[in-house]
Structure formats: C-alpha cells, structure tokens
Amino acid sequence: MSGSADPAPPHAGAPAGRLKKRRDFLRAASRGKRAARPGLVLQALATEPGTVRLGFTVTKKVGNAVVRNRARRRLKEAARLTLPGLGLDGWDLVLIGRDATGARPFGQLIGDLRGALKQAGVLP
C-alpha cells in the first residue's frame, strides 16, 4: 500500500464548488437573476456549462453570530438535500439568509428554495 492516500471522492451529484471570493458574490448580485422567498433570497448567474458553484451568506442584520450560523447551516443543508437531484448545470447560486431562515420549518425552507430556483429561471 502506498504512503499517500487519495482524497475521498465527492458525493455523487454534489455541487462542483463553492463561491468564496467577494468578487464572485458581487458578480452574481449585479448580473444574476434574483428571487426572494420568506425563508431566503436566491441570486443565480448562468455560467459555463459543467459547473455549479454555491455561496452562502447571512448579514449581521439577521442577528448575532449564533443566529447567523444557524441560518447558514440550514441553508447549506437545504441545498445539500435539494440541488443534487435537480441536474443543474452552469450556474453560480448565492443563497442569502433572512430573519425567518432560522425559525422557518425545514420543509417550508426547502419549498422556498425550489420556488426561488423556478422564479429565477434555474429550473424549467
């Protein structure tokens, strides 16, 4: 057995990458489509085929660090459960937490995500 282990393969259908740089978030905000729902706001920017990148943000207006982190974790989980089965290709998606994100029932949060994807034209 070799001394170097290969990294674990990504989950099947997992998003290709993450948006982490400010310029990527700003590009999605300025050029992308926007869809607002009670539990979240979605910014979607069409990119080259073969990539799907996700970004998550929750502003300080939502609450203290504990509240913001809870909202961000819920958005990540909703995306993890929803996006792989949709066959998305060629998008930068930014999910923005709102005041209601942390307390909204999880089923409704997933419904908000699906509705926002349809409204923004990501899903047919």
UniProtKB/TrEMBL annotation:
The keyword Nucleotidyltransferase does not apply. GO terms for molecular function: ribonuclease P activity. Residues 18-33 have a biased composition (Basic residues). Keywords: Endonuclease, Hydrolase, Nuclease, RNA-binding, tRNA processing. Residues 1-33 are annotated as: Disordered. Its EC number is 3.1.26.5. It holds the Pfam family Ribonuclease_P. It catalyses: Endonucleolytic cleavage of RNA, removing 5'-extranucleotides from tRNA precursor. The keyword RNA-binding applies. PANTHER family: RIBONUCLEASE P PROTEIN COMPONENT. Belongs to the RnpA family. RNaseP catalyzes the removal of the 5'-leader sequence from pre-tRNA to produce the mature 5'-terminus. It can also cleave other RNA substrates such as 4.5S RNA. The protein component plays an auxiliary but essential role in vivo by binding to the 5'-leader sequence and broadening the substrate specificity of the ribozyme. Consists of a catalytic RNA component (M1 or rnpB) and a protein subunit. This is Ribonuclease P protein component. It comes from Roseomonas alba.
